[in-house]
# Entry
Amino acid sequence: MSEEKMKEKRNEEKESNEEEEDEQKKYEYYKKAGAIHQKAKEIARPLIKVGAKVIDICDTIESFILENDGQLAFPVNVSINNIAAHYTASGPNDQTTIQEGDIVKVDIGVHVEGYVADGAFTVSFNEELDKLVEASEAALQAVIDSIKPNRETHKLGAVAEAAIKSFGYRPVRDLSGHILDQWELHGKKTIPAVSLPSREKIEEGEVYALEFFATTGTGSVHDLPPTYIYNLVPLKRPIRSKAARQIIREINEKYKTLPFAKRWLMRDLKGGVLFGLRELTRIGLLHEYHPLAEHKGIYISQAEDTVIVEHDGCTVTTRKES
Ligand code: MN
Ligand code: MN
# Structure
C-alpha cells in the first residue's frame, strides 16, 4: 500500500470512529432527555388535582424542565375529557380548571440538543373512567413488550387495538406513535393504534414515541380551533412585516422545527405577535396544531413513552430502569 493510500485509510478510520462516537452521544442525549422527563413527571403528578388551573400546571412543569438542564420539545399539553391532544394554556388568563369528574391527559416533551423524550400520562377524577386509563396503559405496555427490529408496524397497531378493545373501548385511530429524530418530533414512520395495511418495519437503533389513546367514542377526532401550538415549516418564503420577521428570528434561535406555544411568544416578544402569526400562517410558514377532540360527552385517555429499539427489544427512556 502506498504512503498516500495508508494516509487515506487512516483518515477514513478516524472519520468512522467519529461517526460512531456521534451515534453514542446521540443515545446519551436521548437518555438524558428521558431522565429529565421522569423527574418532570414526578413533580407533575401532584399538580393534577381538582381546582388546578391548566396555566399553572403548564408553567410549573415547563419551568422545572428548564431549571433541570432540559429544553422544551413542545409546550406542556393538558387535554381534558373529549379533547385527545394539543391543548395548552392560551396565556396567563386562561381560566381552564380541572373539575370533579374530569379525565386529564398530561403530555410532556423534553429535549437535549434536539433529541426528544415525549411521554404522557392520564389522571381520572371519575371512578367510572379508571378502566379507560388502564386501557391505554395496557396498549402501551403490550407494544413496549413486543416492539423489536423487523416487527411490522401494523402488527404493533393490532396489538394496541386488541389491548384497548379487551377493556371494552376503542383506540383513537387518527393518532399514532411516531419516530423521533434530532429536532424532528414527528418523523415519517408511524405506529398506528389499529391494524393498518402497511408493510413498514421497525429497525434497530430507531427511537419512537409510542402513544395510544383509548376512547368511549368512535375513535375519530376533529380539529377544535383556536390554535395555541405551532411549528415552523422549513420553507423559504418572502416575509413582509417586522412582526413576522421577529417571530421567525425567535423560532430559529429557540425552537427550530419543534412546536412552540403562542403564549411563549406573547411572553418573550415585545408585540405584534398575533399579527405576525397570522401572516406566517397565511403564507404557509407555520403549521397549526389544533386541539384534537371527539364530541362533548366522550372521554379519552392517553399513555405514551419514548423507546430506543435494541436488537432484542427496547429501552424506555421515559421510565426508571427497574
Ligand atoms: Mn406526547
Ligand atoms: Mn408523541
